[in-house]
Amino acid sequence: MGFSYPSMKVLLFFHLLFFTSLMPPISCNKVSLGLYYESLCPYSASFIIDSLAMIFTDGLINIVDLNLVPWGNARLYGNQTIKCQHGAYECLLNTVEACAIDVWPDVKEHFPFIYCVENLVYEHNYTYWETCFEKLGLDASPVTRCLNSERGTQLELGYAAETNALQPPHKYVPWVVVDGQPLYDDYRDFVSFICKAYKGTAKPSACTESSFGRTRKLKMNLINILYGEETSKSELFRALPAVFSWLKRNKIVASF
């Protein structure tokens, strides 16, 4: 199967991860960042694609302990019957993403997969979620086994309990929490809350005012490379397989 338009956004994300991997790690007491969401919520998908991925820029991930909780506004009835706000397919993808987190506990391993799936949600192509295994060079079998076994249900029940235990209770999704404190409508400004909560002495460049300008410049440069007038979309489509192959060979896709 050829690469589609959403893969270009995924490629942009890999570029951001690559630049982050060049930065030295920071020893610190990490700030907890919790995202309580549901897979087919357009606001959740938009936040993951347009905002949350920025934790991988300017060393921010080095001071963050990211916890993704794919449950959201789902409800539990009777004998472990789960009903999701956006229907049965959302329950499926919630479990897929829960299994991915379980199979690849390192955030740098499971976040790219979740990013890929949510990018397909963002582009209204979520029924092709299984293409994310091929795009990322991942073995689908452990996630498939989890999805088709009791393990997937157990994971979702655990996320249900975690979500229902929130104090104060969540009001909507995405529900973003920094060090136990919900951000409410300020959730897209999560970076500033993380920087304020961080107590370490050596702050990453993401927490300095000048870094925001550098990050924006980096993103714009990458966007120009991917979408600029000088490069046609047909050329980009032809180039993408080779780029992904290079990313995989250099262990940027599989292990970051």
Mind explaining what this structure looks like?
This is Gamma-interferon-inducible lysosomal thiol reductase. Keywords: Glycoprotein, Secreted, Signal. By secondary structure, this protein is of the alpha+beta class. The chain has helices spanning 5-21, 42-50, 88-103, 107-122, 131-136, 141-147, 150-164, 190-197, 209-227, 233-249; strands at residues 31-37, 64-70, 75-77, 81-83, 175-178, 181-182. It contains 10 helices and 6 strands; from the N terminus they run αβαβββαααααββααα. The strands form 2 sheets. It has a 4-stranded mixed sheet, with helices on both faces.
State the main characteristics:
256 residues, 10 helices, single chain, alpha+beta, four-stranded mixed beta sheet, 10% strand, 6 strands
Report a brief summary of the structure.
It comes from Rehmannia glutinosa. This protein has 256 residues and is α+β, with helices and mostly antiparallel strands.
